[in-house]
Amino acid sequence: xxxxxxxxxxxxxxxxxxxxxxxxxxxxxxxxxxxxxxxxxxxxxxxxxxxxxxxxxxxxxxxxxxxxxxxxxxxxxxxxxxxxxxxxxxxxxxxxxxxxxxxxxxxxxxxxxxxxxxxxxxxxxxxxxxxxxxxxxxxxxxxxxxxxxxxxxxxxxxxxxxxxxxxxxxxxxxxxxxxxxxx
Length: 183
Prior knowledge:
Elements: H1 2-13, E1 22-27, E2 30-36, H2 42-54, E3 60-66, E4 70-73, E5 103-106, E6 119-122, E7 141-147, H3 149-156, E8 160-163, E9 166-170, E10 175-182
Antiparallel strand pairs: 1-2, 1-10, 2-7, 3-4, 3-10, 4-6, 5-6, 5-7, 8-9
């Protein structure tokens, strides 16, 4: 047994070995933990991690909630003021990951290479978003919820309303109080 423990410690100390990277979203409705997929979506994961590290997601809201589809956040404050972003990233939708329930994907504004900071969590299986659907490009999955799907389900069940140009806004804001890297 000691030998096994020693070999495990040795393996974990090797260069290039990394624990799966996770991000914790502490929301007003509870904790959501996302496991990232850097092998499949390296540019998307790097982009998301940079936004996490910079504090961009702190005090943003889930501004678009469609109960039989997805919950979207990461771009607006509670008063629906859009936060500034960096330049868009290239689309990595051809990575083999699927928009299944719990999968986390990048939102985009029509153009396939327009994703910046906004992301969404699929609350049902959404094969219509997998490459090459729906427009020949698909949506880039870059992680999955590994803790807190009960929180996601509570968010998806909230009543929503239209506020200005924003449809499906929860009547009670769901704030991402903080986002942080966890192991």
